[in-house]
Amino acid sequence: MSALVGACLAAGLFFHGVAALGVLRMPDFYTRLHAVSKAETLGVVLTLAGVAAASDSVLTAVKIAFVAMFLFLANPTATHALGRAAFRLGVPPWTGEPEPDR
Amino acid sequence: MTALFLAAALALLLLALVYVHRIAVGPTVFDRILGVNAFGTTTTVVLLLTGAVFDRVDMFVDISLGYAILSFVGSLAAARYFERTRTQR
């Protein structure tokens, strides 16, 4: 059981790291949004699976599964709303040219 | 097992510093909301890991569920607000 917990936590931390790297290094808002919405959602679900596997009561594990399910639905919804708002306001997408203010 | 959860929580807190950097430098207001949203998601996980460290997951799971819902509603409201007021910075 301990190996399963460790593997889930390690995989979740890896995807959290991917999301943080994307937010740090991606060139414009839409690509950063892409990094957060997918990598972080997977990282959260994997990390919560690790915590749920370590908990000794079934009720707590089910509650953690509900938290994971909520985040699995809510995180893409929030990022979609953000991306739509930015697109409607005309935040310029990255086209390959270097940004003028750098 | 406790040391494993503690190490994971500390690593997640270190990764959350990246989102603080994104909130600070922007450059658009949506980047800042994105940072707040990602920080809230990370905090939800850190709360659960804290519960696992102190062996009180049954209590911390409710706190983290409430935090996740508040964070979700907050970023939705902020996105709608800045879309309506046409703020870009």
Walk me through what this model shows:
- The complex is a heterodimer of chains A (102) and B (89).
- Chain A has one domain (2-89).
- Chain A contains three helices and no strands.
- In chain A, helix 2 runs antiparallel to helix 3 (58-89).
- Chain A has helices spanning 2-25, 29-54, 58-89.
- Chain B contains three helices and no strands.
- Chain B has helices at residues 2-25, 29-53, 57-84.
- In chain B, helix 1 (2-25) runs antiparallel to helix 2.
- Chain B starts with a helix and ends in a 5-residue tail after the last helix.
- Chain B is elongated and about 50 Å long.
- Chain B has one domain.
- Chains A and B meet through helix 1, helix 2 and helix 3 of A and helix 1, helix 2 and helix 3 of B.
For this entry, give a set of tags.
heterodimer; A: about 100 residues; mainly alpha; 3 helices; about 80% helix; B: about 90 residues
